[in-house]
Amino acid sequence: MTSAALPRRRIGLGRHLGALAQLAALGIVGTIAFSLLITLISAGVGLVLALGIGLLFLVGFVYAAWATAWLEFERVEGLYGYGLPALRPRSSGRPGFSGWLRTLLQQFADGAMWRGISSAAISTVLGLFVLPLVAWVVVSVGLLITPASGRSRFPWGETELTPTWAVVLGVLGVLASLALLFGIAVLHATLTRAILVPSREALLAEQARAAGEQRAGAVRASEVERTRLERDLHDGVQPRLVSVGMTLGLAQQKIDSDPAAAKALIDEAHTSTKAAITELRQLARGIHASVLDDRGLDAALSALAARSPVPVSLDVRLDGRCSRTAEAALYFSIAESITNAAKHSRASDCRVTVRRRTEAGATWLWARVEDNGVGGARVIPGGGLDGIVNRIVAAGGTSRLDSPTGGPTALEVSVPCAS
Predict the structure, then answer these.
(1) CA spacing 20 to 30 A to 205: which of 75, 271, 339, 348?
(2) Nearest CA to 330 among 256, 269, 398?
(3) Can you name the residues that pair with 191 across neighbouring β-strands?
């Protein structure tokens, strides 16, 4: 079954005329574009054994094919307003050269990209018929108006027509060519909808897949967070509290025999207690940032930057609040990235950019965290970056890490504002 998942909307005459104008242009531009694509893939396959030169053509083919598909999606959405999701480039999520190769393979196998190319190819073929039909309309109109010249016969190829036959053929030519043009416009609208608009079954399958990924990401993020808390408590607060207890025990034993030593021990325990309270506050802030709820993401990030051991440059431009889930996911992703920059990357500067974006009718929170450290960051199961990825997936968003050896490290995250 191929019932459309999106509601059908009436396509008026203006949209059909716009489609014909675009098809006329595609008949020329599309032919050039597909000639280039065919040349790239032919040269790539033919030269792939010649010192690997063909691989460069194949890489160019993948990028050119994606650009063609993206333009087709944007063209059809701008023309008909089907509500198509924006075509996004695929990413393996893995850094380095191997990650780039995986990304290329995933992009080559992307069904949405090939649907866009199929739609562009069909539109190009239809466009090859539009210009001749428009010329036919012009010629037919010319036959209609030629009797006004007062002549008794008119040249038509190698024959001559009487005024009556000129009018008859002109009327028939105009009606036939306009009918064919209208048919091409309707066929174009039908085919693009069938190819590019997801079916109800495909949409439900995609929603189920996304829900499964979000659920798995939420479970994984909670496991990573629990492991982090256990590690921080075991390695930090717990030994400090044990030390406080032992120190107070020694002070109790010396309080009668050596009051001065007991006082010094109590002072030491007091200092350790304050340090433990500070660590507990930091742990609590890692679980929930109250300022985020009270004053919003901008204020929470400003407080985060003020506490960071690495200088942080903030560029936050938001024109409103998003859901608590979206803001929390973005906040903790930025916080973990800054922590990683301070602990592992030996960075001396960190830049955080946050924007609110609108794409394909949806509003997104987008952030980029970049440091000038040594790079080489990797997503390791159970690590901080793994927690970021899973938290973002649980919120329905996407993430991309770019951290070549030698730096810099850049992390981009994007979550739907209504998640």
Answers:
(1) 75
(2) 398
(3) none
Measured distance CA(74)–CA(84) in Å, rounded:
9
Taking alpha carbons only, the member of 60, 44, 64 closest to residue 52 is: 44
Is the pLDDT confidence value at 69 over 90? yes
> Model confidence over 162-203: pLDDT tens digits?
677 777 888 888 899 899 999 999 999 999 988 888 766 555
pLDDT tens for each residue of 316-349? 888 878 888 888 888 888 888 888 888 888 888 8
How is residue 134 written in tokens?
């428009």
Closest CA to 304 of 365, 363, 367: 367
Return d(Cα 65, Cα 41) in angstroms, integer: 10
- Give residue 252's pLDDT: 82
Helix ranges (H only) for 146-199 are 163-196
Question: Which CATH number describes the domain made up of 291-419?
Answer: 3.30.565.10
Q: Where are the domains of the chain?
A: 9-197, 219-287, 291-419
Residues 6+ apart with CB under 8 A from 201: 1
Give me the chain's average pLDDT, please: 79
Burial class (CB in 10 A: 0-12, 13-18, 19+), 339: middle
Q: For residue 296, what is the enclosing H or E element?
A: none
Identity of residue 99: G
Q: What is the pTM of this model?
A: 0.55
CA distances from 252 to 3, 260, 276 (A): 80, 12, 21
CA distances from 373 to 37, 97, 343, 379, 380 (A): 40, 20, 10, 17, 18
Pairing of strands 350-359, 409-416: unpaired
Beta bridge partners of 226: none
Q: Which tokens go with 180?
A: 């064919």
Helix (H, G, I), strand (E, B) or coil at 355: strand
- CA dist 169 → 3, 104, 165, 172, 204 (Å): 42, 55, 6, 5, 53
Tell me how far apart the terminal alpha carbons of the chain are, to the nearest angstrom.
Answer: 31
